[in-house]
Design brief:
Structural class: mainly alpha
Largest sheet: none
Number of strands: 0
Number of domains: 1
Mean pLDDT: 92
Number of helices: 4
Distance between the termini: 42 Å
Radius of gyration: 13 Å
Length: 69
């Protein structure tokens, strides 16, 4: 029943929360599989990857020194 890259990589697999950079790397493959399953086109795949990448970048740790406080 998953319909978006975000749904799979964040909610179903939790990859976004475990390693945002790795999740970004997975996004194109997930989008391609979803597009095939859902009958979506290349533009939809690109949009999904772009939207997920923008979201995932918010999960990067910018300053690891915050972890030491």
């Amino acid at each position: 029943m998953a319909r978006t890259v975000e749904d799979i990589l964040a909610r179903r697999q939790r990859a976004l929360f475990l390693d945002a950079r790795a999740a970004i790397d997975m996004a194109p493959t997930v989008a391609a599989i979803l597009a095939d399953e859902l009958g979506r086109n290349d533009a939809w795949q690109r949009d999904q990857v772009e939207e997920f990448t923008a979201l995932a970048k918010g999960y990067f740790l910018e300053d690891c020194t915050l972890l030491n406080n």
